[in-house]
Amino acid sequence: MGQINKPIYPANVDGAPETHIPTVSINGNDIEISANHVMTEENYIQFMWLKDTKTNEVVLAKELTPQEDKPMLKAKVPSGVQLTPYLFCNLHGLWKGEPFTVA
């Protein structure tokens, strides 16, 4: 059970960073969030989402299944917005990427 103002899942503490930290590709207003992670029944990325860095609101989320080839979230976002990518691994918990701004 969680406690107020204490995270249930601290970010980036369990597992290999090179397979869990979400990476961002930006092409104009098209963005792609991905991770170099396996997708098997035993170990897979369950969720990926984007938060608005200024408001801390989730602006887009995707649930994934082990049957997907690669964990990926694609979106078209407005210019000037600053977002932070997140993902949740069923074995290794919460992972947070670096904030980015779409020009």
List keywords for this structure.
103 residues; mainly beta; five-stranded antiparallel β-sheet; three-stranded antiparallel β-sheet; globular
What do you see in this structure?
With 103 residues, the chain is mainly β. The protein has one helix spanning 17-20; strands spanning 23-27, 30-34, 45-52, 58-63, 72-76, 82-89, 93-96, 100-101. The strands form two sheets. Strands 3, 4, 6, 7 and 8 form a five-stranded antiparallel beta sheet that branches. A three-stranded antiparallel beta sheet has the order 1-2-5, with no helix packed on it. β6 (82-89) and β7 form a beta hairpin. The radius of gyration is 14 Å and the shape is globular. 18% of the residues are buried.
Write the layout of secondary structure elements.
Layout: H1 17-20, E1 23-27, E2 30-34, E3 45-52, E4 58-63, E5 72-76, E6 82-89, E7 93-96, E8 100-101
Antiparallel strand pairs: 1-2, 2-5, 3-4, 3-6, 6-7, 6-8
Short synopsis of the structure:
The protein is mainly β and 103 residues long. Helices cover 4% and strands 42% of the residues.
Shape: globular
How many strands, which pairing sense, and closed or not: the largest β-sheet?
A: 5 strands, antiparallel
**Number of beta strands:** 8
Estimate what percentage of residues fall within beta strands: 35-45%
Low-confidence stretches: none
Mean pLDDT: 93
Oligomer: single chain
